[in-house]
């Protein structure tokens, strides 16, 4: 009976509207979230077994770590987290020799794949999206004379004159309008980052406010006159026609189109918890609220810390660590950036609360006996 109840509790987060919505859109984050969830729960279960981790299992979690660290830039810290978690397991569960060998393999693979990926892309344009929102606000706030040196460094990679011409546009809009220059060198990009960091240090409030506004909207709390500021893919037409019309048009298959466009659009709008006028419904404030799993995750981490459950505490910190990195690098309030924290945060928290309840019940029974 308890297993059935726990299984249902763990299954509920996997079918919440944000998760299903993202799976329907076809973005990589849909499957990525479940891979990350698999990795976290595998590390959790391996520790709970209190048995020696065999080579097959070690290879399995190592491969999952490589996928997670390579597939999303902000997850690069998983390489270090993986090493620390295995060390915290202790020698009874895994030898230090295996820890170092597996961690070294993970590091080599991640570095190699990342470098090859950058080579295929050919430039750092994708990386620029991590700074484009605050950098445009910083350019607007900077003094053209006093901050000339820093602005010139930034101008090596992006055309800051366009920021002055269209000050009403966001950094994301400027990026897709072609603010990035062509044929800039690695040295130019390095100077760009230096200029960005220098302006951030000089105008910290401007940089922070830009990041904070995106974060608030990303949590689902940003609602204006009934309309959400959160970027949710709820337009059926955009999903299968607007994202990449040229490449999509080259696909010659009857299966690429839904059998009923209107039905698909309606389903996605309902999953976004919006009415026919695209205004949010009451359920939106519950289903699309990132603060709920974040709060549960923080509470579980604090409880684990008090109980000196170091491995599980660090697992929780590994999940929540992504929030800080996305906060610093998010280019727009897309919920998909935080969806892994949403899903994994829910499942991990429920697992911890069930474990604490079971441990407490077990202690009570042992005292009665």
Please outline what is shown here.
With 369 residues, the chain is mostly helical. It has helices at residues 2-11, 17-25, 29-49, 55-71, 78-89, 96-121, 125-128, 132-141, 148-154, 160-165, 171-176, 186-202, 204-218, 236-242, 245-249, 261-271, 284-287, 291-306, 310-329, 339-368; strands spanning 223-224, 227-228.
Portion in beta strands? under 5%
Write the H/E string, N to C. HHHHHHHHHHHHHEEHHHHHHH
Seen as an oligomer or otherwise, the chain set is: single chain
Q: Let me know the largest β-sheet.
A: 2 strands, antiparallel
Look at the structure and give the mean pLDDT. Answer: 86
Helical percentage: 55-70%
Low-confidence stretches: 234-243
Shape type: globular
Q: How far apart are the termini?
A: 23 Å
Give the class from helix and strand content and strand pairing: mainly alpha
Number of helices: 20
Features:
369 residues, mainly alpha, 20 helices, 2 strands, globular
Task: Give your account of this protein's structure.
This protein has 369 residues and is mainly α. 69% of the residues lie in helices and 1% in strands. It contains 20 helices and two strands. The chain has a two-stranded antiparallel sheet with strand order 1-2. A hairpin with a 2-residue loop joins strand 1 (223-224) and strand 2 (227-228). The longest helix is centred in the C-terminal third of the chain and has 30 residues, at 339-368. Mean pLDDT is 86; it is low at 234-243.
């Amino acid at each position: 009976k308890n297993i059935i109840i726990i299984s249902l509790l763990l299954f509920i987060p996997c079918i919440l509207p944000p998760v299903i919505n993202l799976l329907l859109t076809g973005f990589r984050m849909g499957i990525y979230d479940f891979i990350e969830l698999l990795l976290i729960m595998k590390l959790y279960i391996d520790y709970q077994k209190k048995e020696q981790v065999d080579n097959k299992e070690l290879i399995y979690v190592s491969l999952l770590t490589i996928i997670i660290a390579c597939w999303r830039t902000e997850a690069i810290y998983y390489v270090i987290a993986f090493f620390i978690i295995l060390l915290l397991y202790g020698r009874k569960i895994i030898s230090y020799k295996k820890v170092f060998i597996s961690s070294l393999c993970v590091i080599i693979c991640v570095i190699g794949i990342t470098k090859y990926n950058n080579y295929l892309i050919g430039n750092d344009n994708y990386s620029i999206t991590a700074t484009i929102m605050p950098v445009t606000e910083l350019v607007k706030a900077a003094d053209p004379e006093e901050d000339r040196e820093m602005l010139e460094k930034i101008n090596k990679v992006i055309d800051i004159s366009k920021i002055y011409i269209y000050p009403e546009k966001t950094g994301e809009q400027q990026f897709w309008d072609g603010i990035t220059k062509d044929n800039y060198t690695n040295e130019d990009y390095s100077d760009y980052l230096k200029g960005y960091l220098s302006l951030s240090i000089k105008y910290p409030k401007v940089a922070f406010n830009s990041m904070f506004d995106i974060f608030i909207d990303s949590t689902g709390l940003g609602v204006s006159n009934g309309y959400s500021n959160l970027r949710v893919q709820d337009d059926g037409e955009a999903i299968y026609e607007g994202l990449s019309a040229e490449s999509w048009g080259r696909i010659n298959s009857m299966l690429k189109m839904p059998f009923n466009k209107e039905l698909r659009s309606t389903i996605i709008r309902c999953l976004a918890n919006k009415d026919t006028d695209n205004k949010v419904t009451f359920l939106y404030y519950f289903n699309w609220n990132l603060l709920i799993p974040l709060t549960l995750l923080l509470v579980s981490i604090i409880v684990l810390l008090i109980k000196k459950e170091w491995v599980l505490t660090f697992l929780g910190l590994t999940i929540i660590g992504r929030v800080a990195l996305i906060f610093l690098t998010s280019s727009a309030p897309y919920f998909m950036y935080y969806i892994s924290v949403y899903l994994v945060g829910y499942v991990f928290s429920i697992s911890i609360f069930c474990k604490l309840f079971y441990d407490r019940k077990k202690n009570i029974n042992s005292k009665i006996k």
